[in-house]
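User: Just a sanity check before I run the rest of the batch. Below are the C-alpha cells for the first item. I only need the designed sequence back.
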C-alpha cells in the first residue's frame, strides 16, 4: 500500500494525447510536484496502485472503459485522490461522464490550458484532498509551488 501522508505532492495526468502530456508537464515543471502520465484508464489505475497520487487530471474524452477502470481503482483506495476533469468546452462542465456523475466548475480545467488556471485548480484540489483526509492545510505554504515562477 502507498502511504499518502508521506508522499511528495503528486499529480497524475490521464489523456490519450501526448501533446497534452507535454503541455501539462511544462505548466507544472517548476512547482515541485511529481507528475505521472497515463494514456488509458488502465494505465492510470496501475499508476494509482504504485504511486501516492493526490490529484488526478483526466481528459473528459477518455474512453468509457477507461473511466470505469480509473473509478473502480479510486473507490478501493484508502486515500483516493481528487479527480479533476479536463474539457475543451465550458458546456462539458455539467456533462455526464457515466451514470450520474456531474461535474462542478471547480472540478473542470478548460482547454486550451491557461497555466495560472491549471495551477489554481490543482492547488484547490490538493487543499480539498488534505481536508477530506484530515490533514491540516496551511494555505500560505501550499499556494507555494503552484504559483508560477514568472
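Assistant: Here's the designed sequence for the first item:
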Amino acid at each position: 500500500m502507498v502511504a499518502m501522508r508521506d508522499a511528495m505532492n503528486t499529480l497524475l495526468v490521464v489523456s490519450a494525447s501526448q501533446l497534452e502530456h507535454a503541455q501539462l508537464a511544462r505548466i507544472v515543471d517548476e512547482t515541485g510536484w511529481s507528475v505521472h502520465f497515463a494514456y488509458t484508464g488502465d494505465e492510470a489505475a496501475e499508476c494509482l496502485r504504485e504511486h501516492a497520487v493526490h490529484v488526478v487530471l483526466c481528459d473528459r474524452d477518455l474512453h468509457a472503459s477507461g473511466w470505469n477502470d480509473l473509478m473502480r481503482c479510486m473507490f478501493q483506495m484508502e486515500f483516493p485522490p481528487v479527480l479533476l476533469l479536463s474539457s475543451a468546452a465550458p458546456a462539458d462542465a455539467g456533462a455526464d461522464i457515466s451514470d450520474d456523475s456531474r461535474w462542478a466548475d471547480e472540478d473542470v480545467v478548460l482547454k486550451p490550458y491557461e497555466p495560472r488556471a491549471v495551477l489554481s485548480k490543482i492547488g484547490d484540489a490538493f487543499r480539498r484532498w488534505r481536508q477530506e483526509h484530515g490533514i491540516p492545510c496551511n494555505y500560505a505554504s501550499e499556494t507555494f509551488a503552484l504559483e508560477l515562477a514568472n
